[in-house]
Design goal:
This protein is about 45% helix and about 10% strand. The chain is an alpha/beta fold. The protein folds into three domains: about 270 residues, Phosphoglycerate mutase-like (Rossmann fold, 3-Layer(aba) Sandwich), CATH 3.40.50; about 30 residues, no CATH class; about 90 residues, no CATH class.
């Protein structure tokens, strides 16, 4: 009876409050524009120089800062101005580009000037690292300049929790070939008709030009899928960075047409090479690590609402959860959502994102609104969302069995094990 009265209270309250419809938001997204990953000697095939392969560029930081601003505007009636009451929980893969991407996004999501203040004058007097250090005797003027602000501009700081590389179950982010049958899956996907037809046509259209541009004596190098991966990866990075790309133009390559071709290859790479195996094992492996936590957050939120607790606090009841990840991972998410609900598949460019919003209606029903790049893919009752997603997920034991791993060696990476996180 107590729970019934609590539920009635929540329903009545939500009927008069615009914020109650939206109860929780989960987002995972690709990092922003980066330097190419597959170049040698700091120069890509198009003659452009790069200093730090794979690192986020200024363009990539800008993309995620603007994404944070967009999200803040879109969720303006739901979010808070600062990280209080467990308002955000952030995860990232252990790559500089993903960590910096979500840092940039959070700077846009939380407006400066709203972070916490020093408690009082007594605290402020001790809030410095220079006690009894005569070499830093001038710290007082800077402390006075800050006033009660913890950081200049009252910029918010956000803890970022990592999917670490030492956990074998996270290797779909890093080296999926640790899973013994994965290379065979990838090789089989590359042999599929869409990819083979693309490679054949590309060689016909660009073989002679690229042979001359790269100084090769024949076009056989274009038969390598992984050479093409590096080629297009470099070109996309060049274009996002506004490079002049004089070298390919000197050899008669139209940049706009080549750009379209590059994105066609990239789409095939994400949706077919990585995620196109018949069982969608790679996609399901990825989502089996990511989505159980999301379902748990949603269940926690529903249970809290029904008990009359509408607040947000700590890890268990966040307002938002953000996962900073990669094109492949977003592609895996779209693949699993497509298998579960029949949603269409899309390419996953820099800074693309998937949202899963938990909503509540006046009748006490919960539903999940699933969006990609602000496009609503569908609205699914929570129970259906949970059951259809869980039907596609693997247990860690199943992943280990498929990959040929020894479960005894992996026992410390199972849920509930000491130091699991």
């Amino acid at each position: 009876m107590k729970n019934l009265f609590s539920l009635i209270f929540v329903i009545l309250l939500c009927a008069h409050a615009t914020l109650c419809d939206l109860r929780f938001v989960f987002s995972f997204f690709r990092h922003g524009a980066r330097q190419p990953t597959a170049i040698k000697g700091g120069i890509d095939e198009f003659g452009e120089s790069w200093s730090n392969p794979g690192e986020l560029t200024a363009t990539g930081k800008r993309m995620h800062f603007l994404l944070g601003l967009r999200n803040r505007h879109y969720y303006k009636n739901f979010t808070t101005k600062s990280r209080i009451d467990g308002s955000v929980y952030v995860r990232s893969t252990d790559y500089n580009r993903t960590i910096e991407s979500v840092q940039s996004q959070m700077q846009g999501f939380f407006p400066p000037g709203n972070a916490e203040l020093i408690a009082d004058e007594k605290t402020r007097a001790n809030a410095h690292p220079f006690i009894d250090d005569p070499t830093n005797s001038g710290w007082e003027k800077f402390n006075d300049f800050l006033g009660m602000k913890t950081i200049k501009g009252r910029v918010e700081t956000i803890p970022i929790h990592l999917f670490t590389q030492d956990n074998p179950f996270n290797q779909f982010f890093y080296v999926p070939y640790i899973c013994k049958p994965y290379k065979g899956m990838s090789d089989a996907n590359i042999k599929k008709e869409p990819i083979q037809n693309f490679m054949k046509k590309f060689k016909e259209d660009y073989g002679e030009k690229l042979m001359k541009m790269t100084g090769r004596s024949d076009t056989n190098f274009l038969d390598s899928y992984w050479y093409l991966f590096g080629l297009f990866d470099s070109f996309i990075s060049d274009m996002y960075d506004g490079r002049e790309l004089k070298k390919p133009q000197d050899f008669g390559i139209d940049l706009q047409e080549f750009n379209k071709t590059s994105f066609e290859f990239a789409q095939n790479d994400i949706l077919i090479q990585f995620n196109g195996d018949d069982e969608s094992f790679f996609a399901r492996w990825s989502m089996s690590i990511l989505l159980p936590e999301v379902i748990q957050w949603m269940e926690n939120r529903i249970a809290a609402d029904k008990s009359g607790n509408l607040g947000y606090s700590g890890y268990a009841l966040p307002r938002f959860a953000f996962f900073s990840t990669h094109d492949v991972t977003v592609g895996s998410g779209l693949t699993v959502l497509s298998k579960a609900f029949g949603f269409p598949l899309y390419y996953t460019p820099f800074a693309c994102d998937i949202f899963m919003e938990l909503h509540h209606d006046d009748d006490g029903n919960y539903s999940v609104h699933i969006k990609y790049q602000s496009l609503t893919l569908g609205v699914v009752p929570f129970d259906e969302f949970k059951s259809k997603i869980q039907a596609l997920l693997y247990t860690r034991e199943q992943i280990a069995e498929t990959c040929g791993w020894d479960m005894e060696e992996l026992k410390y990476f199972l849920p509930g094990a000491i130091n699991h996180h």
